[in-house]
Amino acid sequence: MRAFYGTELPNPLMLGTAQYPSPAILEQAFRASGAGVATVSLRRESGAGQTFWSMIRDLGVLVLPNTAGCHTVKEAVTTAHMAREVFGTPWIKLELIGHTDSLQPDVFGLVEAARILTEDGFQVFPYTTDDLIVGERLLAAGCEVLMPWGAPIGSGRGLNNEYALRAMRAEFPDVPLVVDAGIGLPSHAARAMELGYDAVLLNTAVARAGDPVEMACAMALAIQAGQLAHRADPIEARDMASASTPVIGKAFLS
Amino acid sequence: MTLWSVIGAGVAGLAVATELVARGAQVQVFDPSGPPGPHGCSWWAGGMLAPWCEYENAEEPVLRLGQQAIGWWEAHTTVNRCGTLVLANPRDLPDLRRFARRTEGFTEISHAEITELEPDINAFSKGLHFPDEAHLDPRRALSDLYRGLIDKGVAFHRKPAPAGLENAIDCRGLHAREVLHDLRGVKGEMLVIRAPDVALTRPIRLLHPRMPLYVVPRSDHVYMLGATMIESEDSGRITARSMLELLSAAYALNPAFGEAEVLEIGVDLRPAFPDNLPRIRRLGRTIYANGLYRHGYLLAPALAQGVADLALNDTHTELVDEDRD
C-alpha cells in the first residue's frame, strides 16, 4: 500500500465536508462510512469558523485542509498557512482554480504554489488535471502525491478520460494517486480503484444526495470493492467466450 | 399567578411571549438592546413562510411544523399568501429536477405560466410553483408582536434579566452559548435594494450550484436579496465576493436589478444546533428556546407553542430534548 507522506490511510475514502444539510448529517456520514480523511475548506470562513472546525477535528479522522476557492498563488499560500495554524497539520490539499465555470485547475500556478509550500515544510496534495507533464512538474516541485480530476468539481460525470488516468497510473507507479472531483456514483469510485488508484476524494456526490449517509456508505463499499478487485488481479477481457467448466467429453466439435 | 420572564426580544422571544399571553399567562420581557431592531438576527431575515421549499434541504419537522406557521402569523401580522417560484438557468436544470424530487407541494410550470405569475420574469423556460407558501415583512411582524404585547400590558425591561430569576425563558439566540454549548453561529449576508423597474409579487428562488439566491418582495419595489450560508462566526462584515454573488444572481433574474439602489447591507449569525433544528431545554429554573437557524419565522410559532406547553402544562412536545434540574 502506498503511503501518503508516510501515513497509511485507514480507509481510502476521502470525504469533503461542505454542502451537507446539517453538521449532524455530516458527522453521521463519516461515522457510517468509515471515511479515512476529511477535507475542509478554510477560504470563506477566514478565521471565524471555529465551532465548525472543532466539529471536524472531533470526527477523529485525518484532516486534509484545502485551499478551495483560491484563484491565485498568493491566496493559496496564505490559506495554506492559515490551515496549518488551525489544524496543526502540514497536509494541504492545494486547489488553485483557473476557470470560473469549469473550476479547472490553473496548473501553472499550481506548480509554483506547490514549490513554495513544499519549501516551507508543507506536504502538498495537488488537485490537478490528468496531464502527465504537469504531474512530473508537481513531483519535481516536491509533491509526493498527485490528485488528478475525474471530471470537473461537482459535475458528477465520473471518469471523463479513463485512458489518461490509466496512463498516469502507469507513468507514476510509486506515487500515491487520488481521483479527486467529478465522482457522481459509487461505480465511478469503484472504477477509479480498479485502475489502481490509492484513494478517491469526493464531496458533492455525498453531501447533495437525497440521503447523504447512505450514499457515503455506498461510496465506501464501492471503493473497497474496487480496491479488492485491483489487488485480486482481474482477468483480461477477451473477445471469445471462455468456458469456466471443462468442455472435455462434450460434443463441442460436432 | 406565575410571572414568566422572557429574555430576548427577537422573533423567538416575542413569539414565546405572545403565545404565553394568548394562553392567559402573565409575562414580562427583558432585552438590554430594547425593542426589536438591527441588533437581532431576525431583523435581517427573509420572512419566507416556505416549508415545502425548505424541506428540499431540511429534516421532516421543518415541513410539518412549518405548515402551522402561516396561520399563526396571520393572527398577528400581515401575511402575503402568494406562493413561491423556484427557477434555474437552462444549464442548471438538473438542480431544478433535483429540487423537485426532494420535496412536494408544487406544480411544474412553463415559461408562459411563469410570465403570467410574474410578468417581469422572462428568461426562464421551466419553474416550480409552490402555491401554498407565503411571506411576511419580518420587521413589521416583529413590531406587530411587540405592539400587541404592549397593548396586553406586558412590561418590556431594557436591561439584562436579573440573575437567579424564577420562571425564566431564555430566547437570547447565540448569546445563550455559555449554557448551550452545542449552539453555533451560521453566517448570513443579505442586501436590501430598491428596484423601481422591477415588480415582483412573490418570493423567487434562483437555484445555482454555488450561489443560490432568493428575492423577497417588500412593499414599494423594495427587495430583500439573500442569503449566504457560511459556517463562520464572523458577523462583522459582508465580503465583496458574497455581495458580487448576490447581485449577479439578481441580475440574472432580471437585468433591471442592475439599476437598483442598494439600501441596506445586513450581516448576522443564525443560532443553530448540529442538526439545524430548534430545541427547547429546561435546565433548572430556566427554559431555553433556541436554534431557529434559517427558520426564524417558519418555526418560531411551533417553538413558542412547545415552550408554552412545557411551561404551562408540563407537556413535552417533540422540540423538547432535555429537562433536568
UniProtKB/TrEMBL annotation, chain A:
Catalytic reactions on record: [ThiS sulfur-carrier protein]-C-terminal-Gly-aminoethanethioate + 2-iminoacetate + 1-deoxy-D-xylulose 5-phosphate = [ThiS sulfur-carrier protein]-C-terminal Gly-Gly + 2-[(2R,5Z)-2-carboxy-4-methylthiazol-5(2H)-ylidene]ethyl phosphate + 2 H2O + H(+)
Record bears the keyword Cytoplasm: yes
Single biological process term from Gene Ontology: thiamine diphosphate biosynthetic process
GO CC field: cytoplasm
Superkingdom, natural source: Bacteria
UniProt keyword terms in alphabetical order: Cytoplasm, Schiff base, Thiamine biosynthesis, Transferase
UniProt-annotated binding residues for 1-deoxy-D-xylulose 5-phosphate: 154, 181-182, 203-204
Gene Ontology molecular-function annotations: thiazole synthase activity
Keyword Chaperone carried by entry: no
Its job: Catalyzes the rearrangement of 1-deoxy-D-xylulose 5-phosphate (DXP) to produce the thiazole phosphate moiety of thiamine. Sulfur is provided by the thiocarboxylate moiety of the carrier protein ThiS. In vitro, sulfur can be provided by H(2)S.
PANTHER family reported for this sequence: THIAZOLE SYNTHASE
Name of the molecule in the record: Thiazole synthase
Native source organism of the sequence: Ruegeria sp. PrR005
Upper taxonomic lineage: Bacteria, Pseudomonadati, Pseudomonadota, Alphaproteobacteria, Rhodobacterales
TrEMBL record, chain B:
GO CC terms, sorted: cytoplasm
Top-rank taxon, per record: Bacteria
Domain FAD dependent oxidoreductase: 6-310
Coiled-coil ranges per UniProt: none
InterPro entries cross-referenced by the UniProt entry: FAD-dep_OxRdtase, FAD/NAD-bd_sf
Family matches, as Pfam families: DAO (PF01266)
UniProt keyword annotations, A-Z: Oxidoreductase
One MF annotation (Gene Ontology) recorded for this entry: oxidoreductase activity
Name of the protein in question: FAD-dependent oxidoreductase
Protein source organism: Ruegeria sp. PrR005
